[in-house]
């Protein structure tokens, strides 16, 4: 009897201590796992950053940072869609008053879109404005089908045109810029396109200065927040997906000088716009006042023959830190305020995208072309693009909880039953 009494007391205390400790470990490990999942979903690596400033009158690059590394164009894609549409207008095959029919496929494209129903029509004039301002994905497909018969064929035409313009590292898979791992471009290629479209289509290019237009009784405003706010800006296009970051092609004319600048991979619309302002401010005065070269089809030898393009590579954490390209905390909202899609493979839109819960899907491989030397502006990026003070902090924090055992929620209760039964058996002895 004394032996049983002595055993009973320690066993009860031990059981209580075990239950408390194991419950704390289980709950703590569960919380750590939840935090890791949240981090993976909402706080992934920043999109790779690149930019270029091109003198539109000479074709010379005044400033460039990783301008030849492949990136995702997002809605910058629609500049090429409009290029081919402008060709049709100039050739007399389409008029501004021509009605374009909305197919069932076009109507199902995800936002951003106008939301037209299958069988509806839209005039070419309104289609251009919808692409320039709202970046409407459904209208991009409407245009593609009207010109190419199908979006697939139109994308082939887009890639062919890109090659003829000297955009050797660009490939298109759709007309809208919706996420697709094979749809890639570079900052330099987008600058080439931005320069070419206004040179070849000066009348139609004026559409890119559209701040807003009315369609079916509602006013649709542009996503380009530099129009009307920065002196000399006359276009041209914004873009956004989770994988690409916030993109912008801008054309500026001041005092007979003309530049086309491109920023790809901004962390937020605000930081992207702020960096573009900085580029304009620092390089507009370096542009030539006299035209010495004009855009045109690339020479046959300039066409890239390296085969199918590869998706862009995401820089490593060390590279991002050394280049100081990580921006302010990621803005999860698109150009017009909708929550951005977080998955590359989903049918998300561009500029504004519907919500999604999946983590980003990426199939990156390293590009074969080396990046250009770092330039003065790259070395003095604004605070919005400053790297975190301790880039390894998140990784270390994850390791400290990775070794904890993951117990199911019912485990502590099973332990109580086990200890209780063991105590009963010892008492009986």
Q: Could you walk me through the main structural features you see in this protein, from its secondary elements to its overall organization?
A:
This protein is α+β, with helices and mostly antiparallel strands and 429 residues long. The protein has two domains: 2-42 and 394-428; 50-391, DD-peptidase/beta-lactamase superfamily (Beta-lactamase, 3-Layer(aba) Sandwich), CATH 3.40.710.10. Helix content is 39%, strand content 13%. It has 13 helices and nine strands. The chain has helices spanning 2-42, 77-90, 104-107, 124-134, 137-148, 151-164, 187-200, 202-205, 269-283, 317-323, 376-379, 393-402, 411-428, and strands at 50-55, 61-65, 99-101, 121-123, 212-215, 218-221, 233-241, 245-254, 257-266. A five-stranded antiparallel sheet has the order 2-1-9-8-7, sandwiched between helices. Strands 3-4 form a two-stranded antiparallel ribbon. The chain has a two-stranded antiparallel ribbon with strand order 5-6. β5 (212-215) and β6 (218-221) form a beta hairpin. The chain is globular, with a radius of gyration of 28 Å.
Q: What descriptors fit this protein?
A:
single chain, 429 residues, alpha+beta, Beta-lactamase, five-stranded antiparallel beta sheet, two-stranded antiparallel ribbon, globular, disordered N terminus
Strand-helix topology:
Elements: H1 2-42, E1 50-55, E2 61-65, H2 77-90, E3 99-101, H3 104-107, E4 121-123, H4 124-134, H5 137-148, H6 151-164, H7 187-200, H8 202-205, E5 212-215, E6 218-221, E7 233-241, E8 245-254, E9 257-266, H9 269-283, H10 317-323, H11 376-379, H12 393-402, H13 411-428
Antiparallel strand pairs: 1-2, 1-9, 3-4, 5-6, 7-8, 8-9
Helix pairs in contact: 1-13, 2-5, 4-5, 5-6
